[in-house]
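Appendix B. Raw example, untouched.
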Amino acid sequence: MKKKRRIVAVLLCAALLISAFFCAIFFMFPLKYERQINEASAQFGVEPALIASIINAESGFNASAVSPRGAVGLMQILPSTFEFVKTFEVFASDALGDDLFDPKVNILAGTAYLKYLLTKFGDLKTALFAYNAGEGNTRLWLKTQSADALEKTPFAETNSYADKVLNGIGMYYWRI
């Protein structure tokens, strides 16, 4: 009888630990706007888990987020970056819209810009550095380090951002 109780207790503890683990994952890696993420993924050929991880790192899925530097929405797009993205040929025939607080517009613009950076730099981590700290800074760092790709930047915040996105991708692969 005692052996049976022990087994039940162990199983109950295991179930509680597994439940706590999944609750923590769902709390740390929320997921909203799946349809918009999947549409942008299909349109630009960017992995949906990467898009979701960037949204989590940038805004925590808060569509009304505004940074102190003026970046807006889910993917924290600067208005100047948005104007640049709207010139992309893919948006020529069909208007993107002007509301960066609209999840569809923000995710499309952010994903288009990310695809641009991935194509330009050819390396995911370097593209993430550029997404966070700017294309100009990233080009300067590449030049001063005489490198094709970057492992680190002089900005601790940018390094931390890239690590957060890269670590989050795996968590979103099984969710989206």
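End of appendix B.
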